[in-house]
UniProtKB/TrEMBL annotation:
Highest taxon in the source lineage: Bacteria
Record-level Gene Ontology MF annotations: intramolecular lyase activity
Organism: Gallionella capsiferriformans (strain ES-2) (Gallionella ferruginea capsiferriformans (strain ES-2))
InterPro entries associated with the record: Chalcone_isomerase (IPR016087), Chalcone_isomerase_3-sand (IPR016088), Chalcone_isomerase_sf (IPR036298)
Keywords carried by this UniProt record: Lipoprotein, Membrane, Signal, Transmembrane
Signal peptide: 1-19
Domain Chalcone isomerase: 19-186
Protein name: Putative lipoprotein transmembrane
Length: 188
């Protein structure tokens, strides 16, 4: 009886810690960032026309299924982008800029002018991303937004507000892709 109970517990635990896989990309259920273990909140594929561009995943301190709850969360966060196809930094930056403009007023954009410029500089340094490349956008309390490409830190934008600017690309009122927003909010 003990063996059966142990086997059942092992299967339950091993099943709950399995990574999600999308388009051949294994996404861990938990990642460590700063002093926090973040859980996979949701993940999906960004598609444009008939092309799958990247898999993206959202990690939070605790699962949330409402965009307002994610945006008001003051804890550490991570957006991970796993590229499925090659893309130039200019095209990626254009899509980021478009997502940011679509979800912010002219007044809000003017107030973020410095942060947006720093983000543009960081993105232009990437030159070209290839299939298999990974970008991490990490938010850490006291540090701000960090941009990592393939494990190398590309730049940091201080403060707590810019990260939500990025999150709104995927979770704002006018997300880059509505079904991706739902998947990032736990709809897998």
């Amino acid at each position: 009886m003990k063996k059966k109970l142990l086997c059942a517990m092992f299967l339950l635990v091993s099943h709950s810690t399995q990574a999600v896989e999308l388009k051949g990309v294994a996404l861990p259920d938990v990642v460590h960032l700063g002093n926090s273990n973040l859980v996979l909140n949701g993940a999906g594929v960004r598609s444009k026309f008939i092309f799958d561009l990247y898999v993206t995943a959202l990690y939070l301190n605790a699962k949330k299924n409402m965009a307002t709850a994610v945006l008001s969360d003051l804890g550490e966060k991570r957006i991970a982008m796993y590229f499925l196809d090659d893309i130039s930094a200019a095209n990626l930056l254009y899509s980021f800029d478009e997502g940011i403009r679509d979800n912010h007023s002219a007044t809000e954009l003017a107030a973020m002018k410095e942060e947006l410029h720093k983000f543009d500089v960081i993105c232009h340094r990437m030159v070209r991303l290839k299939a298999g490349d990974v970008i991490l956008f990490d938010y850490q309390i006291g540090t701000g937004t960090q941009v990592w490409v393939n494990g190398g830190l590309r730049g940091t934008i201080a403060g707590s507000t810019f990260y939500n600017t990025l999150l709104k690309i995927w979770l704002g009122e006018k997300p880059v892709q509505q079904d991706l927003k739902l998947k990032l909010l736990g709809g897998f």
